[in-house]
Specification:
By secondary structure, the chain is an alpha/beta fold. It has one domain: Rossmann fold (3-Layer(aba) Sandwich). The chain has 11 helices and 8 strands. Strands 1, 2, 3, 4, 5, 6, 7 and 8 form an 8-stranded mixed sheet that branches. Strand 1, helix 4 and strand 2 form a beta-alpha-beta unit. Helix 7 packs across helix 11. The two termini are 25 Å apart.
């Protein structure tokens, strides 16, 4: 992900728990986020900001004939990603340490690019998209998937749960990153020079009709994500420990039948390189 200085400030951190969350997230959301993304055999695909390889694993399995180059700024994350792909028997992925803001490839090197949960962690997302546009061949396409923390709704909704959610947003903003970037995909792609841009919501809604989905989305993706802001939020005085613990307990109620409800919206955008 991103540039070296900025990824050292990755809001969710590089803990083993975060690795577990990312892998859970890729599996739980695979059909939702990867539906409609296929790369024909022989095509060269650049995955920008592969992290620990959670999305790489899905890309490689769903597109076995494509030649995938996955980059990240973190050597540690790349090592984990490589191990994950090797363990799964994937043979169509090459890993390379590189900066998304300064890609080490000539113009027109790739047919496709895939960017998932990366732009929100960059101070210059538009610059990254311009770099991606540069390394794509004419007529090649980019797929970008980003969340938007302003799109989240849940029940029971309490003041305490609202505060911890807003702590996550504020901690990320103080890093110079954008937790509301999903809604900006169309203008960002347009300003980067892409054409034929199509952006669509990919939303998830869970209630007591799907207890497994409630547990997966709320307890294995969302609440662990919010927990990554705990230390920074407490240190910066955004919230007191008692308030944090109450807020997290209340947020978990969204996964508790029969009354829990949770909604979140991701945005998926595709654009053509000119």
């Amino acid at each position: 992900m991103g540039g070296a200085r900025d990824m050292a400030r990755y809001v969710h951190g590089y803990s083993s728990r975060e690795t577990e969350r990312l892998c859970d997230q890729s599996g739980i959301l695979e059909r939702l986020l990867h539906r409609g993304t296929e790369y024909p055999p022989g095509r060269r695909v650049l995955e920008v900001g592969c992290g620990v390889g959670a999305q790489t694993l899905v890309l490689a399995r769903r597109n076995p004939g494509a030649a995938i180059v996955s980059i990240d700024i973190s050597a540690g994350s790349l090592s984990q990603a490589s191990g994950l792909i090797q363990g799964a028997g994937g043979a169509n992925v090459e890993f390379l340490q590189a900066d998304a803001l300064n890609l080490p490839f000539p113009a027109g090197s790739f047919d496709h690019a895939y960017v998932c949960f990366v732009l929100e962690h960059l101070p210059e997302p538009g610059r990254a998209l311009r770099e991606i546009q540069r390394i794509l061949r004419t007529g090649g396409n980019v797929t970008v998937i980003e969340g938007d923390h302003g799109s989240c709704l849940w029940h029971p909704f309490t003041e305490a749960s609202r505060r911890v959610w807003e702590c996550l947003i504020e901690v990320q903003r103080r890093l110079g990153h954008d937790p509301l970037i999903g809604r900006q995909l169309f203008p960002l792609l347009l300003q980067a020079g892409f054409t034929d841009i199509k952006v669509a919501p990919r939303w998830v809604y869970t209630d007591a009709n799907d207890p497994e989905g409630m547990d997966g989305v709320v307890n294995r993706i969302i609440c662990p994500m919010v927990e990554t802001a705990r230390v920074s939020a407490l240190r910066s005085g955004l919230i007191e420990l008692e308030g944090w613990e109450k807020g997290m307990a209340d947020l978990h109620l969204a996964a508790l039948p029969p009354h829990g409800v949770f909604f979140y919206n991701w945005f998926k955008g595709v654009g053509i390189s000119g």
